[in-house]
Amino acid sequence: MIFLFNFLGHAQTMVKGKVSDEKGSILIGVNVIIKNTRQGTITDGKGEFVITVPEANSILEFSYLGFETQEISLNGQTFLNIIMIEESQLLNEVVTIGYGAVKKRDLTGSVGSLRLEDIEKSDPTSITTALQGKIAGVNLSNNDGAPGGGVSIQIRGSNSLINSEPLYIVDGIPWIVSEIPQGTTSENQASNPLSEIPPQDIVSVEILKDASATAIYGARGANGVVLITTKKGQSGVDKVEFSTSIGISSITREIEMLDGYDYANMRNEAIANKNFYEGGDSAPAYPQEGYWSYNAKNPNDSTYHPSPIDFKTGRAVQTNWQDEIYRTAITQNYALSIGGGNDLGRHYLSFSYLDQDGIIVNSNFERYSFNVNITRNIKKWLEIGSKASFVRSKSALANTSTDDMGIVYNALIFNPARDVYIPGYDNVTNFEDWNGASNPYTAVRVTQNDKTNLRFSNSNYISIKFSDYLSFRQNIGLAYSKNDRDAYYPRSTQTGKKPTNGYAIRSDNYWNSLALESILSFNKEFAEAHKLNAVLGWTYENSIYGSKYNRTQNFPNDLIGYNSIGDGLDVPKVSSSKGEYALMSYLGRVNYTLKDKYLLTASFREDGSSRFAKGNKWSSFSSYALAWRASEEAFLKDIEILNNLKLRVSYGTTGNQGIAAYATQARLSTNKAVVNGSVYPGYADAIYGGPTNPLLKWETTHQYNAGIDLGIFKNRLNFTAEIYHKKTTDLLQSVLIPLSTGFTTMRSNVGTMINKGLELTLGVLILEEKPISWLLEGNISFNRNKILDLPGDQFASSIGWNMDDIYIQRNGMPIGTLWGYKFDGYYDNEAEVRNDPAYADKAEAVIKSMIGQPKYKNLDNDPTSISPTDRTVIGDVNPDYTFGITNTFEWKDLFFSFFLQGNVGNDLVNTYWYRMNSDYGFSRNIPKSVYDSRWIPEDFSNGNYSLTPGLQPEWGILSSSMNRRNLFSDKMIENGSYIRLKNVNIGYRIKAPLKNVDNIYVYCNVTNLATWTKYSWYDPEVSIFGSDPTRRGVDLSAYPTSRTVTFGIKCTF
Question: Is residue 59 assigned to a domain?
Answer without folding.
Answer: yes
